[in-house]
Structures are given as structure tokens and as C-alpha cells.
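Anyone able to model this chain together with calcium ion?
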Amino acid sequence: MNRAELNDGAGVFTELAGQAQCYGWATLATLLVDLDRDGDLDIYVGNDLFYDCLYRNNGDGTFTDIAAEIGTDKSSISAMAASAGDIDNDGLIDLLVSDSTNGDESIGNAVFINRGDLTFENKGRKLGLSVFDSSLGSETMFAWGSGIFDFDLDGDNDVHMVTHVTVEEVFWQRTFKGFEIVNELTFRLLDVDGRGSAYGDIDNDGDIDIVVARRGDGAFIADPAPLQILRNDTDTPCKRIKIDVVPPHLAPGAHVTITMDTCGSQTQSLEVGSGYSSVNPSTAIFGLGAASRVESIKVEAIGRPPVIIEAPTEEHVVVNVGPEA
Ligand SMILES: [Ca+2]
Ligand SMILES: [Ca+2]
Ligand SMILES: [Ca+2]
Ligand SMILES: [Ca+2]
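re: yes, here you go
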């Protein structure tokens, strides 16, 4: 049984008795994101070998599991990873939940496109993201880590997943048809046997790099396997902007929106956790694509008034959403 505990900021945690427990065989993915934009964090719970839960935050310390009501509960039977990101660039944060394709009830990775009223449409198959390419080495694959980011900085979000069963990580790039697997990326590795992935700009050059956690050799004995860092060496003429949200404890679930001189706007939700046992930094990175400049940045942190920065001149901006700002 899972537990939800409130942190009072002084090192004391109090259980929300009976709330957000989502009983299942094994919970491997927990994602906190404000899906209905009402100023509180909702919770997606991904279970292995059992149905998933989606808890709407009622704002009073209680949660309501709406997964069965809206049909997201049975879309992923072998969930290891869940990620939040705006897949279709309409300003509403969508969900990616990994799954296997190994012949049980599993139907492949789910992509829940947010309609804005806490209902979703699973477009995983339509977008080409539901199944892995069996030519990559196995038909039995499970993604333990996932990320929705604009890895090539061309102005649209791409998708990365890391899998096990000694298969490499998989990278989808957005095309006019949907998403297609890209195999020639410079940071592609073999025999990853990944059990988690985190996403951030490790070398501080303005693009998203990846850290992959790996299982040790042997089925039951955890021989050490070092982390792998996948440095992103994207060569692009597109401009970019990196936005750090501080203080870090107010960043989880914050919506960061940039408006550009052309091509409209882009929105990201800062994730608390990423896939299985991984955490991302409180940083948003946007590629501007065909746009030439950012006209404004808007950061909406949970429980804080929006902070708007007009006409930023730097490629790296730190936005303070705290009371002392
Ligand atoms: Ca909410
Ligand atoms: Ca969306
Ligand atoms: Ca892209
Ligand atoms: Ca980088």
C-alpha cells in the first residue's frame, strides 16, 4: 500500500491517512503534475502488473482516483515510467506512460493527450509511440525511464526511453507524421539494461543530456554497473533558452511558458520524479526552432503567484518564485 505524506518544512511528515494509496502489486512510477491547472499537484501512479491510478487533488488534503472513470487505468499494465510534457504543443500537459508489448493485457506505451478537463485520449498508437521496434533486438521490452524534451532544439518535443533486456535506449523524434524512432543519434548506446533515466544540462551548453541508471550483471546479484552519461552534441542553428526555477523546493510541478516572436508559445511542466527512481533538475530548456527571440517567460509555481519576465536578453535565466523574490 502506498502512502502520501505531507512535509511541514521542519522535517516532520504527516500521513494523509487513507489518501492516494493506489494498491497494486508494485508501484514503479509516481508523477506529480497539475493536470487541470487549478494550482495543486495531481498524482499519476503507474503500477507493474496492475491497473494505474490518477488522483485528482481536491485541494483539501483528499484525492479522488478518476482513472477508471476516464479510462486511463487499464492503458498500461506494465508501467515502469511516467512522464509529463506537452506532446502536441497546445499548452496542456500530456502524459506518457510506458508499457510492454509482451502478449498479456499490455498494449504498448500510452500517450494521454490532455483535453483540458481532466479527460484524455490515448494517442500512443496514432503517434507511433506505443510500441518498440522489434528490430532493435527484442520484442519483450519495458521502458524504465522516459523523458519528453526538445532534444534537438528545433522547437518541438521529442521522446526518449530507456529499456531493459540488454536493449539500447530508444529515441523518438517528432516528424510531420507523428513520431519516428531515430537510430543514428550520437549518444546511442548498446547493452544499456537501463533501470532509470534523468534529464538535465550536465555540461551546461544549453541542451538536454541524459543520465542512465543500469542494472548490474546477473539476474539476482547486484554487481555494480556504473551510471552512463549521454552527452547531447546536437549541432543546430536554432536558438535556445534555459530557465532555472528557484528555490528548488517550489519548482516541482511549475508550468514554464515562453512566448516567441513567431511560432507561438511552448509550455513545460517541471517534473518531481522521472520514471523509476530518478529525479530531474528544476530547469526548463526550450529550443526556439524557427523563432528568433523570446518575448516573455511566465512561470506558474504551485501555490505562488505567476512570475513574468518580459523580453529576456540572456540564454540562461534564473526565475525566483519564492516569497523573497
Ligand atoms: Ca490540480
Ligand atoms: Ca498537450
Ligand atoms: Ca525536437
Ligand atoms: Ca548539455
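The pocket of calcium ion (ligand 4) is lined by residues 201-203, 205, 207, 209, 232 (CB under 6 Å).
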